[in-house]
Design goal:
Blueprint (H helix, E strand, L loop, with lengths): L1 H32 L10 E6 L7 H8 L2 H4 L3 E6 L3 H10 L4 E5 H10 L4 E9 L5 E5 L15 E4 L5 H12 L8 E4 L5 H6 L5 E5 L2 H9 L2 E5 L9 E8 H6 L1 H17 L3 H12 L3 H4 L13 H13 L20
Parallel strand pairs: 1-2, 1-3, 6-7, 6-8
Antiparallel strand pairs: 3-10, 4-10, 5-8, 5-9
Helix pairs in contact: 2-10, 2-11
Protein backbone atom coordinates (compact mmCIF):
# COMPACT_ATOMS: atom_id res chain seq x y z
CA UNK A 1 0.00 0.00 0.00
CA UNK A 2 2.82 2.39 0.92
CA UNK A 3 4.47 1.65 -2.44
CA UNK A 4 1.17 2.18 -4.23
CA UNK A 5 0.58 5.52 -2.41
CA UNK A 6 4.12 6.68 -3.31
CA UNK A 7 3.42 5.77 -6.95
CA UNK A 8 0.13 7.71 -6.92
CA UNK A 9 1.78 10.75 -5.28
CA UNK A 10 4.59 10.74 -7.83
CA UNK A 11 2.13 10.39 -10.67
CA UNK A 12 0.06 13.32 -9.45
CA UNK A 13 3.20 15.40 -9.08
CA UNK A 14 4.23 14.60 -12.63
CA UNK A 15 0.77 15.49 -13.91
CA UNK A 16 0.84 18.75 -11.92
CA UNK A 17 4.26 19.70 -13.26
CA UNK A 18 3.17 18.83 -16.78
CA UNK A 19 0.01 20.89 -16.36
CA UNK A 20 1.97 23.85 -15.05
CA UNK A 21 4.44 23.55 -17.88
CA UNK A 22 1.49 23.27 -20.23
CA UNK A 23 0.16 26.58 -18.98
CA UNK A 24 3.30 28.27 -20.24
CA UNK A 25 3.15 26.29 -23.44
CA UNK A 26 -0.52 26.96 -23.84
CA UNK A 27 0.16 30.66 -23.49
CA UNK A 28 2.43 30.37 -26.50
CA UNK A 29 0.01 28.03 -28.20
CA UNK A 30 -2.84 30.46 -27.68
CA UNK A 31 -0.74 33.18 -29.32
CA UNK A 32 0.05 30.86 -32.20
CA UNK A 33 -3.59 29.89 -32.55
CA UNK A 34 -4.44 33.56 -32.70
CA UNK A 35 -1.71 34.08 -35.29
CA UNK A 36 0.99 35.35 -32.93
CA UNK A 37 4.63 34.51 -32.38
CA UNK A 38 7.33 35.27 -29.83
CA UNK A 39 7.39 38.94 -30.91
CA UNK A 40 3.77 39.92 -31.54
CA UNK A 41 0.24 38.89 -30.62
CA UNK A 42 -0.85 38.82 -34.26
CA UNK A 43 1.76 37.99 -36.88
CA UNK A 44 -0.33 38.50 -40.02
CA UNK A 45 -1.90 41.94 -40.16
CA UNK A 46 -4.31 43.22 -42.78
CA UNK A 47 -3.41 46.70 -43.96
CA UNK A 48 -5.71 48.81 -46.14
CA UNK A 49 -3.69 50.59 -48.84
CA UNK A 50 -4.57 52.94 -51.70
CA UNK A 51 -2.12 51.71 -54.36
CA UNK A 52 0.55 53.72 -56.18
CA UNK A 53 0.20 56.97 -54.25
CA UNK A 54 3.42 58.75 -53.34
CA UNK A 55 2.10 58.87 -49.76
CA UNK A 56 2.67 55.14 -49.26
CA UNK A 57 6.36 55.24 -50.19
CA UNK A 58 7.38 54.74 -46.54
CA UNK A 59 5.16 51.70 -46.21
CA UNK A 60 6.48 50.22 -49.46
CA UNK A 61 10.05 50.92 -48.39
CA UNK A 62 9.45 49.16 -45.05
CA UNK A 63 7.90 46.22 -46.87
CA UNK A 64 10.63 45.97 -49.52
CA UNK A 65 13.46 46.33 -47.01
CA UNK A 66 12.06 43.58 -44.79
CA UNK A 67 11.38 45.82 -41.80
CA UNK A 68 7.97 44.31 -41.10
CA UNK A 69 9.38 40.79 -41.26
CA UNK A 70 12.19 41.72 -38.86
CA UNK A 71 9.51 42.80 -36.37
CA UNK A 72 7.72 39.45 -36.66
CA UNK A 73 4.98 40.78 -38.92
CA UNK A 74 3.60 39.55 -42.20
CA UNK A 75 1.63 42.22 -44.04
CA UNK A 76 -1.45 41.26 -46.01
CA UNK A 77 -2.37 44.06 -48.40
CA UNK A 78 -6.03 44.96 -48.84
CA UNK A 79 -6.73 47.43 -51.64
CA UNK A 80 -9.03 50.29 -50.67
CA UNK A 81 -10.19 53.37 -52.57
CA UNK A 82 -10.27 55.89 -49.73
CA UNK A 83 -10.00 56.49 -46.01
CA UNK A 84 -13.78 56.75 -45.91
CA UNK A 85 -14.03 53.19 -47.23
CA UNK A 86 -11.45 52.01 -44.69
CA UNK A 87 -13.31 53.20 -41.59
CA UNK A 88 -16.12 50.60 -41.56
CA UNK A 89 -13.63 47.86 -42.44
CA UNK A 90 -11.55 48.82 -39.41
CA UNK A 91 -14.65 48.66 -37.21
CA UNK A 92 -15.58 45.16 -38.38
CA UNK A 93 -12.06 43.79 -38.15
CA UNK A 94 -11.63 43.39 -41.90
CA UNK A 95 -8.59 45.64 -41.51
CA UNK A 96 -6.11 45.92 -38.65
CA UNK A 97 -4.40 49.06 -39.97
CA UNK A 98 -5.37 51.44 -42.77
CA UNK A 99 -3.75 54.20 -44.75
CA UNK A 100 -5.71 57.31 -45.67
CA UNK A 101 -5.94 61.08 -45.46
CA UNK A 102 -6.02 62.54 -41.97
CA UNK A 103 -9.03 64.71 -42.77
CA UNK A 104 -11.34 61.72 -43.25
CA UNK A 105 -10.00 59.89 -40.22
CA UNK A 106 -10.38 62.94 -37.97
CA UNK A 107 -13.94 63.49 -39.23
CA UNK A 108 -14.85 59.88 -38.42
CA UNK A 109 -13.34 60.17 -34.95
CA UNK A 110 -15.00 63.51 -34.20
CA UNK A 111 -18.40 62.28 -35.38
CA UNK A 112 -18.14 59.15 -33.25
CA UNK A 113 -18.38 56.75 -36.20
CA UNK A 114 -15.07 55.17 -35.24
CA UNK A 115 -12.57 55.07 -32.39
CA UNK A 116 -9.14 55.21 -34.00
CA UNK A 117 -5.52 55.67 -33.07
CA UNK A 118 -3.03 57.50 -35.29
CA UNK A 119 -0.23 54.95 -35.37
CA UNK A 120 2.14 56.20 -38.08
CA UNK A 121 2.54 59.21 -40.34
CA UNK A 122 2.50 59.03 -44.12
CA UNK A 123 3.21 62.26 -45.94
CA UNK A 124 3.67 65.91 -45.00
CA UNK A 125 3.14 68.44 -47.77
CA UNK A 126 6.00 70.46 -49.17
CA UNK A 127 5.85 73.27 -51.71
CA UNK A 128 5.92 71.95 -55.26
CA UNK A 129 4.33 68.55 -54.69
CA UNK A 130 0.61 69.32 -54.86
CA UNK A 131 -1.22 72.03 -56.76
CA UNK A 132 -4.26 73.34 -58.59
CA UNK A 133 -3.44 73.31 -62.30
CA UNK A 134 -4.99 74.55 -65.55
CA UNK A 135 -4.34 73.92 -69.21
CA UNK A 136 -1.66 76.22 -70.69
CA UNK A 137 -4.19 78.18 -72.82
CA UNK A 138 -6.55 78.77 -69.88
CA UNK A 139 -7.22 82.39 -68.80
CA UNK A 140 -6.95 81.24 -65.18
CA UNK A 141 -3.52 82.21 -63.87
CA UNK A 142 -3.94 82.39 -60.10
CA UNK A 143 -6.29 81.50 -57.29
CA UNK A 144 -7.82 84.99 -57.61
CA UNK A 145 -9.27 83.93 -60.97
CA UNK A 146 -11.19 80.95 -59.61
CA UNK A 147 -14.50 82.62 -58.73
CA UNK A 148 -17.26 80.96 -60.74
CA UNK A 149 -14.89 78.25 -61.96
CA UNK A 150 -14.86 74.49 -61.37
CA UNK A 151 -12.14 72.49 -59.66
CA UNK A 152 -11.78 68.74 -60.02
CA UNK A 153 -11.13 66.92 -56.75
CA UNK A 154 -11.04 63.26 -55.74
CA UNK A 155 -13.69 63.74 -53.02
CA UNK A 156 -15.95 66.55 -51.86
CA UNK A 157 -14.85 66.12 -48.25
CA UNK A 158 -11.16 65.59 -47.60
CA UNK A 159 -7.76 67.24 -47.51
CA UNK A 160 -7.91 68.25 -51.20
CA UNK A 161 -10.99 70.44 -50.86
CA UNK A 162 -9.86 71.65 -47.44
CA UNK A 163 -6.44 72.87 -48.61
CA UNK A 164 -7.89 74.23 -51.85
CA UNK A 165 -10.36 76.40 -49.92
CA UNK A 166 -7.56 77.64 -47.67
CA UNK A 167 -5.25 78.74 -50.50
CA UNK A 168 -8.16 80.30 -52.44
CA UNK A 169 -9.18 82.36 -49.42
CA UNK A 170 -5.56 83.33 -48.74
CA UNK A 171 -5.37 84.68 -52.30
CA UNK A 172 -8.33 86.98 -51.61
CA UNK A 173 -11.01 84.98 -53.44
CA UNK A 174 -14.18 83.45 -52.03
CA UNK A 175 -14.06 79.62 -51.85
CA UNK A 176 -17.87 79.66 -51.73
CA UNK A 177 -17.94 80.87 -55.33
CA UNK A 178 -15.95 77.87 -56.57
CA UNK A 179 -17.64 74.68 -57.72
CA UNK A 180 -15.91 71.47 -56.66
CA UNK A 181 -16.55 68.44 -58.86
CA UNK A 182 -15.57 64.86 -58.08
CA UNK A 183 -13.24 63.54 -60.77
CA UNK A 184 -11.67 60.11 -60.25
CA UNK A 185 -7.89 60.35 -60.20
CA UNK A 186 -7.63 57.95 -63.14
CA UNK A 187 -9.70 60.39 -65.25
CA UNK A 188 -8.09 63.60 -64.01
CA UNK A 189 -5.92 64.44 -67.02
CA UNK A 190 -8.66 63.60 -69.51
CA UNK A 191 -11.20 65.72 -67.62
CA UNK A 192 -8.83 68.68 -67.65
CA UNK A 193 -7.85 68.25 -71.30
CA UNK A 194 -11.45 67.90 -72.51
CA UNK A 195 -12.74 70.84 -70.49
CA UNK A 196 -14.94 68.90 -68.08
CA UNK A 197 -13.45 71.10 -65.38
CA UNK A 198 -11.51 74.39 -65.44
CA UNK A 199 -8.86 73.43 -62.89
CA UNK A 200 -7.70 70.11 -61.49
CA UNK A 201 -6.16 69.40 -58.12
CA UNK A 202 -3.17 67.10 -58.62
CA UNK A 203 -0.58 65.59 -56.35
CA UNK A 204 2.65 63.88 -57.27
CA UNK A 205 3.34 61.83 -59.31
CA UNK A 206 0.27 62.90 -61.32
CA UNK A 207 1.37 66.53 -61.13
CA UNK A 208 4.65 65.85 -62.93
CA UNK A 209 2.90 63.60 -65.46
CA UNK A 210 0.44 66.42 -66.26
CA UNK A 211 3.27 68.92 -66.66
CA UNK A 212 5.20 66.64 -68.99
CA UNK A 213 2.26 65.40 -71.08
CA UNK A 214 -0.11 68.39 -71.13
CA UNK A 215 2.11 71.32 -70.22
CA UNK A 216 -0.25 72.38 -67.43
CA UNK A 217 0.42 75.52 -65.44
CA UNK A 218 0.21 75.85 -61.67
CA UNK A 219 -2.65 78.11 -60.57
CA UNK A 220 -2.02 77.65 -56.83
CA UNK A 221 0.30 75.52 -54.76
CA UNK A 222 -1.67 73.56 -52.13
CA UNK A 223 1.23 73.42 -49.69
CA UNK A 224 1.91 77.09 -49.03
CA UNK A 225 0.60 79.85 -46.77
CA UNK A 226 -2.04 78.55 -44.36
CA UNK A 227 -1.40 74.96 -45.44
CA UNK A 228 2.40 74.95 -45.44
CA UNK A 229 3.74 71.67 -43.98
CA UNK A 230 0.19 70.27 -44.01
CA UNK A 231 -0.14 66.72 -42.68
CA UNK A 232 -1.73 64.88 -45.59
CA UNK A 233 -1.99 61.23 -44.69
CA UNK A 234 -1.11 58.48 -42.27
CA UNK A 235 -1.99 55.10 -40.79
CA UNK A 236 -4.60 54.31 -38.16
CA UNK A 237 -5.80 51.29 -36.21
CA UNK A 238 -8.92 50.73 -34.11
CA UNK A 239 -8.40 51.71 -30.47
CA UNK A 240 -9.54 48.23 -29.42
CA UNK A 241 -6.92 46.59 -31.64
CA UNK A 242 -4.17 48.79 -30.18
CA UNK A 243 -5.27 47.92 -26.65
CA UNK A 244 -5.51 44.18 -27.31
CA UNK A 245 -2.38 43.94 -29.44
CA UNK A 246 0.20 46.29 -27.92
CA UNK A 247 3.25 44.40 -29.21
CA UNK A 248 1.81 44.11 -32.71
CA UNK A 249 0.99 47.82 -32.83
CA UNK A 250 4.43 48.79 -31.55
CA UNK A 251 6.08 46.49 -34.12
CA UNK A 252 4.07 48.05 -36.95
CA UNK A 253 4.96 51.56 -35.79
CA UNK A 254 8.67 50.70 -35.55
CA UNK A 255 8.76 49.18 -39.03
CA UNK A 256 6.97 52.21 -40.45
CA UNK A 257 9.38 54.59 -38.70
CA UNK A 258 12.33 52.79 -40.32
CA UNK A 259 10.73 52.89 -43.75
CA UNK A 260 9.84 56.56 -43.41
CA UNK A 261 13.31 57.36 -42.09
CA UNK A 262 14.97 55.85 -45.15
CA UNK A 263 13.08 58.32 -47.32
CA UNK A 264 15.06 61.24 -45.96
CA UNK A 265 17.32 60.29 -48.88
CA UNK A 266 15.65 61.51 -52.08
CA UNK A 267 17.31 58.88 -54.25
CA UNK A 268 15.76 56.19 -52.06
CA UNK A 269 12.36 57.86 -52.53
CA UNK A 270 12.74 57.92 -56.30
CA UNK A 271 13.96 54.33 -56.49
CA UNK A 272 11.10 53.19 -54.25
CA UNK A 273 8.57 55.02 -56.45
CA UNK A 274 9.90 53.31 -59.54
CA UNK A 275 9.66 49.92 -57.85
CA UNK A 276 6.07 50.01 -56.58
CA UNK A 277 4.36 52.75 -58.60
CA UNK A 278 6.03 51.63 -61.85
CA UNK A 279 6.93 55.21 -62.72
CA UNK A 280 9.09 55.95 -65.71
CA UNK A 281 12.53 57.16 -64.60
CA UNK A 282 11.89 60.57 -66.19
CA UNK A 283 8.80 61.04 -64.01
CA UNK A 284 10.30 59.54 -60.85
CA UNK A 285 13.35 61.79 -61.12
CA UNK A 286 11.24 64.93 -61.59
CA UNK A 287 8.51 64.55 -58.96
CA UNK A 288 8.31 67.04 -56.14
CA UNK A 289 8.93 65.14 -52.95
CA UNK A 290 7.25 65.89 -49.65
CA UNK A 291 8.38 64.97 -46.15
CA UNK A 292 7.97 61.48 -44.69
CA UNK A 293 7.82 61.95 -40.88
CA UNK A 294 8.92 59.07 -38.68
CA UNK A 295 6.17 59.70 -36.12
CA UNK A 296 2.83 61.45 -35.79
CA UNK A 297 3.25 65.02 -34.54
CA UNK A 298 0.20 66.06 -32.47
CA UNK A 299 0.85 69.75 -33.13
CA UNK A 300 0.80 69.32 -36.91
CA UNK A 301 -2.23 67.05 -36.76
CA UNK A 302 -4.02 69.61 -34.58
CA UNK A 303 -3.54 72.17 -37.36
CA UNK A 304 -5.50 69.87 -39.67
CA UNK A 305 -8.35 69.59 -37.17
CA UNK A 306 -8.40 73.36 -36.61
CA UNK A 307 -8.52 74.03 -40.34
CA UNK A 308 -11.38 71.55 -40.68
CA UNK A 309 -13.29 73.50 -38.03
CA UNK A 310 -12.65 76.77 -39.87
CA UNK A 311 -14.20 75.44 -43.08
CA UNK A 312 -17.07 73.58 -41.48
CA UNK A 313 -15.76 70.04 -41.90
CA UNK A 314 -15.87 69.62 -38.13
CA UNK A 315 -18.81 70.79 -36.06
CA UNK A 316 -16.82 71.48 -32.92
CA UNK A 317 -13.22 71.95 -31.86
CA UNK A 318 -11.46 68.60 -31.71
CA UNK A 319 -8.43 67.75 -29.60
CA UNK A 320 -6.26 65.24 -31.47
CA UNK A 321 -3.89 64.44 -28.60
CA UNK A 322 -5.88 61.48 -27.17
CA UNK A 323 -5.90 59.63 -30.50
CA UNK A 324 -2.17 59.89 -31.22
CA UNK A 325 -0.52 56.55 -30.51
CA UNK A 326 2.35 56.54 -28.05
CA UNK A 327 4.55 53.49 -27.99
CA UNK A 328 4.95 51.90 -24.53
CA UNK A 329 8.21 52.50 -22.73
CA UNK A 330 10.71 49.66 -23.34
Amino acid sequence: MRTFRRWITASVAVVAVTALGGCGLLGGSDDTAAGGNDKVEKATVKVGIIPQLIDIAGFERARGAGYFGAEGLQVELVTIKSATEAVPKLKTGELDFAFGNWTSFLAAQSEGTADLRAVADGLQAKEGMTALVAMPQSPINSAKDLAGKSIGVNALVGNVTLTSKAVIKAAGADPGQVQFKVIPTANALNALQTGQIDVMSLQEPNLTTAKQKLGVKVVADRATGPVADFSISGYVAPASFVQNNPKTTAAFARAMAKGQGDLADQQTVRKTLQDYAKLEPAVANAVGIGVFPTSVDPARLQKVADLMLTYGELKRKFDVAPIVYRAPAP
